[in-house]
Amino acid sequence: DVKVTQSSRYLVKRTGEKVFLECVQDMDHENMFWYRQDPGLGLRLIYFSYDVKMKEKGDIPEGYSVSREKKERFSLILESASTNQTSMYLCASPPTTGGFETQYFGPGTRLLVL
Amino acid sequence: GENVEQHPSTLSVQEGDSAVIKCTYSDSASNYFPWYKQELGKRPQLIIDIRSNVGEKKDQRIAVTLNKTAKHFSLHITETQPEDSAVYFCAASPSGSARQLTFGSGTQLTVLP
User: Chain A partners of B43 at a C-beta cutoff of 8 Å?
Assistant: First the structure.
């Protein structure tokens, strides 16, 4: 079974703080993703990484950066947290099934920025 | 890029009734359509998927249908049970790659006992 873990389930931060969200997968997958989930908006892709030290912007990268120093770990960084970044953040990593990739999600980190 | 619209946003059914959630997509090249279920406080989990070379797929009480011509696909849940209450997301990908997976906005399904 794929195991994707996230370092925190809940975080409360203040505006302007630098925030790190960590994600780890134990299946040696190349691809890792960060989404944010907001009511009525579904899941939106922030960044993804297809290899160590490689990253690509998703649909809503503004205000975020990422780091992937090791294959199993993918970090999402909020350089200066703002209240509009209050959200649920989901890390995901896709195994390939029959040539198609489907997402396996971590438990999520609910971030509140005050 | 791909755009996925999902309806309805909320759906209430009586236990034992059927529930249908519909999604439309814009990119005719999309060929992979997964559905995810997210229970309250839990992570989204894949429940069923369909590929463009198949018109229908069934897994016990859950089925998905795909109409490529009309560019829409639907999730059907029969004999609903209270544990089916959750948020359901559809998604579409033009390449079968998770890098290009676009999600719908979600449907809150409530099964009333």
Answer: 90, 105-108
Residues of B in contact with A104 (CB under 8 A): 46
Computed over every residue of chain B, the mean pLDDT equals 94
A3-36 pLDDT tens trace: 899 999 999 999 999 999 999 998 888 899 999 9
User: Contact A102/B34, CB-based, under 8 Å?
Assistant: yes
Residues of chain A with Cβ-Cβ distance to B108 below 8 Å are none
Rounded to 10 degrees, the C-alpha dihedral A25/A28/A30/A35 comes to: -10
d(CA A31, CA A27): 11
- Radius of gyration of chain B measured on its C-alpha atoms: 13
Q: Is the pLDDT of residue A1 over 80?
A: no
Per-residue pLDDT, averaged over A73-101, amounts to: 91
**Interface with chain B: mutation pick from A3, A103, A110, highest number of B CBs within 10 Å:** A103
Largest CA distance in chain B: 41
- The whole-angstrom separation of Cα A103 and Cα B113 is 32
Chain A residue closest to B90 (CA)?
Answer: A42
Angle at A34 between CA A30 and CA A37, to 5 degrees: 145
